[in-house]
Amino acid sequence: MPNDMTHLQAEATRQAEICNACRYCEGFCSVFPSMFAERSFAAGDITQLANLCHNCRGCYYSCQYTEPHEFALNLPAALAEVRTESWETFAWPAAPARLFQRHGVALVAALIVGVAALFWAAFALAPASGRGFYAALSHGVMLSIFIPAFLFPVAALSISARRYWAAVGGRRLRIADIKQAARDVATMRNLSGGQGQGCNFEKEDRYSSARRHSHQAVFWGFMLCFASTASGTLLHYGLGLEAPYRLFSLPKLLGVPGGILLTLGAGGMAWLKTRAAKGLGDTRVWGGEMAFVLLLGFVGASGLALYAATGTGAVPALLALHLGAVLALFVTTPYSKMAHGVYRTAALLRDAQR
């Protein structure tokens, strides 16, 4: 084992070298063209391959060297374990990384603490006056809670991304690199094994596009929800128009479809995880990943419930539940599966430079 490699990286290297000799999977996802471009692998190369892998599992079901063959290849699992290890290595601050990656209970605890904090704020700091949500929790209190909660993951993930970029030998980006990576992110091409047939995540050797569609629903749902919040901010500070907004206002036209997509997509992802073979991923983090997916779905569902309850006595309790879930999502983002969006994007940018 090379001195700079961990045991997990060394095992992934062994399997990658066998794949490099066989090359049966040459037409598969972006991992294999990148792998076949190398004659030997350093630790940074394996880290890059691990984060380029979307765990579609097509290579496993096509491989002639899986168990009971003596080579015992399981490349999806080997890369998944290196991927988890890399996220824990590059995370900042490092201490909570293993906790949130591997223990769904920690995410649930974060949710409980977040909800309890928002309940306390809603009842102890209730404003003397206000309309809509601001009658339960003042605008100033919301800002004082969520601006730091938003800036923290942005700063933490920026540091993590810089560490990753240095480890994999990333160079200065060109416009063409950014365009290619953005196209791959938007279409999630690698979730279909790069061939457009779908992946083998939950149906073994049969192709399915369900995982890709669920991921796209979550991605675009999250982006619509973010755009809804951004448009509400512009209306509030730019035009002096305060929430609550009507159904045919821009925040609602973006936020309601976004919440529906986020909820349905997260539900689909959770269901698919129960059908997929655990042994083809990193079994150590299955619980943490499932808890994250459920938290993501709860954010969407609680937001929709809060909108439906506008004008009723249920608003304070639903507001605390929803904002508590959002707070938990933000605070755990640098350490939960949410971070994969940053690492995968960085891996696709580095691959575009290849």
From TrEMBL:
SUPFAM superfamilies: 4Fe-4S ferredoxins, Respiratory nitrate reductase 1 gamma chain. This is 4Fe-4S ferredoxin. It comes from the Bacteria. It comes from Actibacterium lipolyticum. Keywords: Membrane, Transmembrane, Transmembrane helix. InterPro entries: Citrate_utilization_prot_B, NarG-like_sf. The chain crosses the membrane at residues 105-126, 132-157, 217-239, 254-272, 292-309, 315-335.
